[in-house]
User: Fold this.
Amino acid sequence: KITAAQDGLTDLLQQELNEQLLVAERAREEMMAAHCDELDDLIQSHDLERRDLHREIGELRIECAQACESNALEQPLADMRAYLESQVCTMKNKFEAQLADLEERQREQRVQDEVEISQLRCSLEACQEDL
Assistant:
């Protein structure tokens, strides 16, 4: 009788543990999906900004070529080149900053995921010890 009751209790505790693990796994999957959606949105935003910047560069090149052809250049070509180079440098710095920010977010998410996994393992070990 005691063994049957213990087996029933063990089964009940195992079932409860399994349900908690499923809830935790679903929560982790939802967080990962949300994280992936956020990364997708960020990448899409970066792609749109990159396309806009490439379009602007193309427009600036066309304007520069037209100005050179029509001799309407008000400043020397070297100054125009320096201006464009500074614009490219600024864009590069922005891309690097955005990439660093993205990498930092990913690192933080990994740390958070590792902490959550550690907590889940500790919880599992505690439940297993209780059994």
Residues 56 and 62 are 10 Å apart (CA to CA). The radius of gyration is 29 Å.
